[in-house]
Amino acid sequence: MTLDVEWARRWVALAAQAITxxxxxxxxxxxxxxxxxxxxxxxxxxxxxxxxxxxxDRPATxxxxxxxxxxxxxxxxxxxxxxxxxxxxxRAGKVSGLAELGPDAVVALLEGALEGITxxxxxxxxxxxxxxxWAPAVEAAVRSAxxxxxxxxxxxxxxxxxxxxxxxxxxxxxxxxxxxxxxxRSAGHMDPGARSSAILLDAAAxxxx
Length: 209
Ligand code: ADP
Ligand code: MG
Ligand code: MG
Known about the structure:
Elements: H1 5-21, H2 23-33, H3 38-54, H4 62-76, H5 81-94, H6 103-121, H7 131-146, H8 151-168, H9 192-208
Protein name: Dihydroxyacetone kinase DhaL subunit
GO biological process, one term: glycerol catabolic process
InterPro entries: DhaK_L_YcgS, DhaL_dom, DhaL_dom_sf, Dihydroxyacetone_Kinase
């Protein structure tokens, strides 16, 4: 089993739908420790992405789709998360310029995304950001692919680890981004970007299932 362009198209469609469904939740999370725009920013961005990808005339590769996702997010999301997700999808797209992805290519895609986020935002694990979802997701994907799993199972492992990672941000004190302005008062709330990252990875896994 490999993942192809149709998988990438399904991922985008499911991601846009899931972000719309989670819009209020993401706004609420960002209201607790930020400025309350994360759900609105991302919903606007992924609606633009979905329209763009639907209108694409026969994209040849997964990389082509991910690169279009990146440039669309960069021009439509804004805030901290626009450039972060934009760079994530840009790097993900670079490492997956294949027509079909096996388990190792899925790992490379996820590693590219994490690398894009950390090169842009300079956050490490435990700083209460989206890195706390992506880093364990990559670790889980590496383990799953190493154990001989199919791409769909690799993505499921990554998505589940991202969900755990998002929950793990609740007790943390933020040291990057807007939430860091709150200092100790940022503890007790889930990071909105970690939550949206888990949602995006869950959509990727569902698209492959
Ligand atoms: P803004 O804070 O500009 O309003 P958003 O609300 O769209 O932007 O996104 C906030 C999210 O961005 C945070 O929840 C966090 O996950 C992520 N974030 C902020 N700064 C960084 C960083 N330096 N590295 C990684 N992620 C970050
Ligand atoms: Mg915000
Ligand atoms: Mg903002």
